[in-house]
Amino acid sequence: MRIATDLTEIELDVVHRWLSEGAYWALGRSRHVVERAARNSLNFFARDDDGTPLGYARVVTDSATFAWLCDVYVDPGARGKAVGKALVGAVVDTLEPMGLKRTLLVTADAHGLYEQFGFEPYPTPERLMQRGG
Asked: What is the reported pTM?
């Protein structure tokens, strides 16, 4: 498995299909929004040794104090093959040298994956707020 981080190596049409059709948090997201988000983020695109796309993750960060891990998606045919683990590992390895104070994410069902990399429930969720939704 290979993880690409250069946007020119990432198949945004595939990412768009995955997110807009298969990710509960991004259903219906337009191709334009997927591309704009990718251009303004750190991107991680997993491929099998034969070049088959396997998964994607995106990080929004200021590279100094904060990051938000989002849009983590593994192709249904590749689930259970440690693709998510490889993606999150690549993210953590990339962010670690930045010395960030905090990296956040939201998940409905992958807590066990993220816990392997040191993520834990937010200690004071009552302090988190959002605009929009």
From this structure: 0.95
